[in-house]
Amino acid sequence: MQETISQYTSEIKSFQAKSQDELESFRIRFLGTKGIIKDLFEAFKTVSSEEKRVLGKVLNEFKQLAEAKYQTLRESLESLDTQTESGQDLTLPGEGFELGARHPLSLVRKEISEILKKQGFNVAEGPEIEDDWHNFSALNFPEEHPARDMQDTFFIKKGGEKGDIALRTHTSSVQVRMMEAGKPPFRAIMPGRVYRNEAISARAHCFFHQVEGLYIDENVSFADLKQTLFHFVQELFGEVTKVRFRPSYFPFTEPSAEMDISCSICKGEGCQFCKHSGWVEILGCGMVDPNVLENCNIDSKKYTGYAFGMGIERITNLKYQIKDLRLFSENDIRFLKQFQSEMI
Ligand code: DAH
């Protein structure tokens, strides 16, 4: 019996399990209820009491050896299990996802929309590729107006010739689409991207973003326009903000104005941003020209309305003191990350 045990001992010592199945066979073979150790203990009962003294110790040590071997192999297989074939440890904690940040222009567009939605404006959109009618003619632009010039507008050539398709130069084109498609009253804002053929610099870009506003109903007056914009600005820049309107000209509004606000950076004291005037222009506006209403089949005797248009970049520059327009489209993560706390 001693000899058998010593043979098994060397078998156990040299045994290596490459899988759980192999280990399980080992357990059944040696430690199972019908296993070798069980058999040896059965046989042990039959030996003489003299032999028992020596053998008892050997047998017990053998049993401990088998149990210890099983335990070690099990542990090492378990730790192997947590590694994939490529050697990756699946028990390691995962790599966290970094939260993205909203683009500052999206944040400001959202803020503008939220304020005006509270004043009863819907949000609408229109196409960026427009025809001459929606971008110019319906908006009362005369044939020879400089904005139609190739220098300002990206025309899209049809068959090698300059066609009447262009990238919209302003969101006012969406006004026309809205008025053509429905019946008054209209009260909506129309945010979107616009394009102009400008050399890219800190102060100009070939594309930027605007929000257009339109309100058409019976008895809409310039006073309504002023009040809406006044409240808008107070919500966007704070109650201390002052406004002033200056007479201006746009083909699609009559009368027309430009609105300035007291510079939110220097609080009207005078700084580089407001060119030391204390005021910054933020939008154009006016009463919709009756010609525009008629072009869109709206009775200009019955209905009046106002419109306004503002650049989102300009408002964002003011809110966040960003001086270079190019930052908005460079996708520099160091710039964009600064808006992380504004995550909504
Ligand atoms: N469309 C003008 C622009 O790009 C902005 C504008 C001015 C829009 C006056 C209006 C408005 O609706 O009434 O520059």
Structural write-up:
With 344 residues, this protein is of the alpha+beta class. The chain is built from 12 helices and 10 strands. The mean pLDDT is 91. The protein folds into 2 domains: 85 residues; 239 residues, Bira Bifunctional Protein, Domain 2 (BirA Bifunctional Protein, domain 2, 2-Layer Sandwich), CATH 3.30.930.10. Strands 1-5-6-10-9-8-7 form a 7-stranded mixed beta sheet, with helices on both faces. Helix 1 runs parallel beside helix 4, helix 2 runs antiparallel to helix 4 and helix 3 packs antiparallel against helix 4. A hairpin with a 2-residue loop joins strand 3 and strand 4. The site of 3,4-dihydroxyphenylalanine has 11 residues, from strand 9 and strand 10.
Number of domains: 2
Biggest β-sheet: strands ordered side by side in the sheet:
1-5-6-10-9-8-7
**Assigned CATH architecture of the largest domain:** 2-Layer Sandwich
Q: With helices defined by DSSP (H or I, 4 residues minimum), what is the helix count?
A: 12
Distinct bound molecules: 3,4-dihydroxyphenylalanine
Shape: rod-shaped
Helix content: 25-40%
N-to-C span? 78 Å
Q: How many beta-strand segments?
A: 10
Biggest pleated-sheet summary: 7 strands, mixed
What's the average pLDDT?
A: 91
Q: Which topology of the largest domain does CATH recognise?
A: BirA Bifunctional Protein, domain 2
Strand content: 15-25%
- CATH class type of the largest domain: Alpha Beta
CATH level-four homologous superfamily name of the largest domain: Bira Bifunctional Protein, Domain 2
Give the SSE string.
HHHHHEEHEEHEEHEEEHEHHH
Low-confidence stretches: none
